[in-house]
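Hi F.,

I've been meaning to write this up properly since the lab meeting, where we talked about keeping a consistent format for the predictions we share between groups. The idea is simple: the sequence comes first, exactly as it goes in, then the structure tokens exactly as they come out, then a line or two of notes. No screenshots and no reformatting. I'm using this chain as the first example so we have something concrete to point to.
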Amino acid sequence: MVYDIIMFGKRAVPLDNRAKKEGSRQRLNERVHELADDLEFRRRWKRVNSIELWSDAAIFRLNDGSKWYLNIG
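Output, unedited:
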């Protein structure tokens, strides 16, 4: 399985694009850029192991095994 990489700050996280659409990736990039000033997002970002991208949502898998859903639609 080939993973893409998403960069935010100095951290790169593997991205599994299940939607197989470039539009979903662009919406995720825009949403992450919008959340750049959100302190809670930055705290969570430090614990993200991987991201699974669907057509209208991103599922962030954290270090402790929990998941965090982000609406990008």
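Notes:
The chain has one domain: 5-71.
The longest helix spans residues 22-34.

If this format works for you, I'll send the rest the same way.

G.
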